[in-house]
Amino acid sequence: MPFTAWSKIVKDPVTIKDPLNREAAPRYRGFHDNDVDECIGCGTCEAICENEAIDLVPVDGIETKDGDSGLRPKIDYGRCCWCALCVDICTTNSLRLTNEYTWVDTDPDNFRFVPGVDEKDWYEKEDGWRKPVPNYHFYGQERVEMEELPAEARGDSFIEFVKGYSKDQAQQEADRCVECGICIGTCPAHMGIPEYIKTIRNDDMEEGLKILYDTNPLPEICGRICTHKCEDVCSVGINGDPLSIRWLKRYIADQVPSEQYHEILDTQKIFKGDTKIAILGSGPAGLSTAYYLSLLGHNVTIFEKLEKAGGMMRYGIPEYRLPYDQIDKDVDYILSLGVEIKYNTDVDAKMFKKLESDFDAVFISTGLHAGRSTRIPGSDHKHVFQSIDLLRQITAGEEIMVPEKVVIIGGGNVAMDITRSMARLQKIKYGKVQTLATSLESEEEMPADREEVVEAREEGAIIDPGWGPKEIEIVDGKIKGLHVVKVLSVFDEDHRFNPKFDEDNKKFFDADMVVESIGQAPDLSYISDELKEKLELGPRGRYLLNEYNQTSVEWLFAGGDIVVGPDVIHGIADGHKAAVGIDNFLHNKKK
Predict the structure, then answer these.
(1) Of the residues 95, 129, 163, which one is the last residue of a structural domain?
(2) 250-277: average pLDDT
(3) Residue 508 contacts by C-beta under 8 Å, 6 or more apart in sequence?
(4) Residue 157 DSSP one-character state
(5) Order of all β-strands in the sheet with 478-491
């Protein structure tokens, strides 16, 4: 209105003499900058941009590795509206907007650039828009904890103590996922993690089960004991708690009754051809191979040395971590596809030779069932045991020696399994725990999962790492304890195993029994010397395999612990690769 204009007649006009050099407000949303060293290329910025102004592109000098896609965001200022959602969603807080807003250029292609890589004048500016922290996130920072029995209620029992998520808890935890997919590359089986987590949010467990079985035929097992390397690289975990991916996988598997599997997974009718494959060992690799080969129409026979299927999953992992009925649920479905298991069958060299003639291909996955000894003085005493043997007896329900004082040598997950098992047996027998575990590695270097160490201590066991075993003292034929010396370092500068000790810093651990848990070895005695000569060896003396786990002998494939070491998800991935390789081999053989 005219009166509004007249009201300003007595005010001095404001003239900006040089608008191109006008300083913007401190939190103005100007041009992008990115700390490419902090960025992991998760792609959340690309996904949230409704204008499609961001593309993830490879950058020279940045390599793909676990937890880093090797890609970095490229911005198109022909599309960008400077809404800053890309900055607000950034899980690493590496992306920001400076308060620089003037950019003059005659080449429109220059307005598409990679922040933090392409040189720009405004990178040195501190002002601009950053994600306000803390308490400014589009996703929850704290994980929904899985309920479990307290230590005082679980220490004298082998029942499963981790209860599992309720529906509300699972959906609340699933809501934290930003669907970046950075976890997929780290998972050995490359499971569709964001996709199956999305089915929890949508409360569609049937679809979730389908996604699980695409790449993992042991979801009940893996949902409980997976080493969950995916969680180590979870982008949400960079500035908060990583997503509980393992427990969410378990939630899906727990919700669907096994009698519905065939209908949901559409495996009611599988046509079988005339090809026959023999599998040695019914651990994760053997079962995984059998599952995929069966879906491909092959006839599969598994030869298992022990009474039941599962390998080290059944005979090496205590029931409080992995209940037998959950193993059976996964195994029974695989058997329902027509897979046959011959139990109590110990394959020797003669029988293995017969398998070569009776079957079209053979897959060996016999695991690591032999323990390694420290070979220190006294280690040959009858009350010095291998953890792998004791765990097998415990899981089989056999009675074992349970003395008042036990010392475990080892710092891995198997060592924690036998530590916690012996602690339970002591609690049941004596009402108290006197189990101690020691290892060469320091607390920070111990290979065991951190939760295993914490829970072992909660259950009364003593964990005293950083000591090297020197001698088991024996008096009048009985074990009195273990002499140890302080470890200065475990590995040398080239990260080779070369422990150094302080011989003057000593300790003595009282014990009536010592358990060695320093590693496991395979038993490949069934492979004849003639066949061994044909098998090419790779690094560390292991058999050389191609990308499909095929050995240099074309009909022989291998996988699981004897190839990649003890890890269920690696075994499952090996089984998938081997099944594809065997199927290709048999098709080519027919041509």
Answers:
(1) 129
(2) 93
(3) 473, 481, 482, 483, 484
(4) -
(5) 467-475, 478-491, 497-510
Whether 364 and 375 map to the same domain: the answer is no
Yes or no: say if 246 and 228 are a contact pair by the CB < 8 Å rule.
yes
* Closest of 470, 472, 481, 480 to residue 503, by C-alpha: 470
Across the beta sheet with 361-364, the strand order is 340-342, 299-303, 276-280, 361-364, 556-558
Q: Are 221 and 330 spatial neighbours (Cβ–Cβ below 8 Å)?
A: yes
Helix, strand or coil, per DSSP, at residue 318:
coil
Tokens of 305: 């040395």
CA dihedral 212, 218, 224, 226 (to 10 degrees): -80
What are the DSSP calls for 464-529, one per residue? --SEEEEEEEEETTEEEEEEEEEEEEEE-TT--EEEEEEEEEEEEEE-SEEEE-S-EE---TTS-H
Q: Which of 369, 250, 373 is nearest to 316 (CA)?
A: 369
DSSP state, residue 284: H
Q: Which residue has 């240099």 as its token pair?
A: 552
Domain for residue 49, yes or no?
Answer: yes
CA dihedral for 419, 422, 427, 432, sign (positive or negative): negative
Mean of all residue pLDDT scores within the chain: 94
SS3 for 101-119, per residue?
CCCCCCCHHHHEECCCCCC
Tokens matching residue 80? 């960008």
- 83: which 2 tokens? 């809404």
Q: What is the pLDDT of residue 591?
A: 67
Q: Are residues 48 and 121 in the same domain?
A: yes
Written as one string, the DSSP assignment of 60-72 is: TT---BTTB-SEE
Q: How far apart, in whole angstroms, are the C-alpha atoms of residue 324 and residue 22?
A: 71
Structure confidence at residue 2 (pLDDT): 61
291 pLDDT tier (thresholds 50, 70, 90): very high
Residues 420 and 482 occupy one common structural domain: yes
Q: What pLDDT was estimated at residue 3?
A: 64
Which residues lie closer than 8 Å to 569 by C-beta, 6 or more apart? Answer: 187, 188, 189, 216, 222, 226, 227, 229, 284
Q: How far apart are CA 238 and CA 441, in angstroms?
A: 26
Residues 375 and 514 in one domain: yes
pLDDT tens figures, 264-280: 999 888 888 999 999 99
500 alpha carbon, distance to own chain's centre? 31
* Both structure tokens of 37: 């060293």
CATH at residue 63:
3.30.70.3270
- Confirm if 468 and 501 have CB atoms less than 8 A apart: yes
d(Cα 434, Cα 297) in Å, to the nearest integer? 53
- Residue 341's domain comprises 270-369+531-590
**Strand partners of residue 56:** 73
What pLDDT digit, counting tens, does each position of 236-247 carry? 999 999 999 999
Q: Which amino acid is at 281?
A: G
Q: How far is it, in rounded angstroms, from Cα 163 to Cα 590?
A: 50
User: What b/e sequence results for 75-111 when a residue is b if at least 16 CB atoms lie within 10 Å of its CB, and e otherwise?
Assistant: bebeebebebbbbbbbbbebbbbbbbbeeeeeeeeee
- pTM here is 0.91
Helix axes 245-255, 167-174, angle to 10 degrees: 140
Residue 122 and residue 171 in one domain: no
Residue 265 one-letter amino acid = L
